[in-house]
Amino acid sequence: MVRANGAVSLRELARVVQTSEVTVRRDVRALEAEGLLDRRHGGAVLPGGFTRESGFPQKSHLATAEKTAIADLAAGLVEEGEAIVVGAGTTTQELARRLARVPGLTVVTNSLLVAQALAHANRVEVVMTGGTLRGSNYALVGSGAEQSLQGLRVSKAFLSGSGLTAERGLSTSNMLSASVDRALVQAAAEVVVLADHTKLGTDTMFQTVPTDLITRLVTDEPPPHDDRAATELQALADQGVQIAVAGASGNPGGEQVPATRRAPLPGPRRGHMPLRSGAGMGEPTGAERGRVADLRRR
């Protein structure tokens, strides 16, 4: 089976070459060591990860439990009366559904899906950008969208993307989407990236947010054997990105992880205001500070 991110499952590889998954997994590791392919959870993809962007129908069915947990945790970062920007994406759409309960909120967005999720929220004001509709993800892009964001200033930007690495930051596969996301970042005092573990370590064509501009990453708990995601989390932490890890009850391996389980790390990015505490985001304990290091040692 070829997945939406371009990866071929180990089961399918084993079927094609008529051998066991154990043998395929060993061979895939050897090929990865030679730089001939990149491993993904349960599969493999050609190196570099510069794959064609999936459309909304495909994305909406990927990592749904993880996206729900991430949205639950991210919503706790938003306070009554704030003005924020929310970018396009299936994870940000999940966040918007939870923001409908925050009174006095102003949400600026280029996403029709985000606007739709907030359309009937009586206490939330929604401001749409201008621009040209990009049908694959129901987002407004182009010069009209970017110009409508000029002079705007809000407290936080919530963005998703196609990939996230410590070296390059958040990236996406579409040039027009990347350009609008960069305009959203310029409007915000803090940048919060929402990315499930499958995007960690994946690099795509167009950079949207360099690592030094990311205030906080909200992600889910990587599977125990996902060394790539754990390594990337540690590298992001080393560069000062605050990490919040949300559990998903349906995650691979069947481990039950509380939704507020997190890994607070070094302080806010230089030049950014400190994040205000949201629900369930209190002062970190000593055990919590070691969370990402624990993930890395698995």
Description:
The protein is of the alpha/beta class and 298 residues long. The protein folds into two domains: 2-47, Arc Repressor Mutant, subunit A, CATH 1.10.10.10; 61-246, Rossmann fold, CATH 3.40.50.1360. Helix content is 32%, strand content 21%. It contains eleven helices and 15 strands. The chain has helices spanning 10-17, 21-33, 56-59, 64-75, 90-99, 112-118, 143-148, 175-186, 227-238, 286-289, 291-297, and strands at residues 8-9, 38-40, 43-45, 83-86, 105-109, 124-128, 132-134, 139-141, 154-159, 163-165, 169-172, 188-194, 206-209, 216-220, 242-246. A seven-stranded parallel β-sheet has the order 6-5-4-9-12-14-15, sandwiched between helices. Strands 1-3-2 form a three-stranded antiparallel β-sheet. It is elongated, with a radius of gyration of 19 Å. The two termini are 28 Å apart. The model is unreliable at 1-5, 48-61 and 248-289 (pLDDT under 50). This is DeoR family transcriptional regulator.
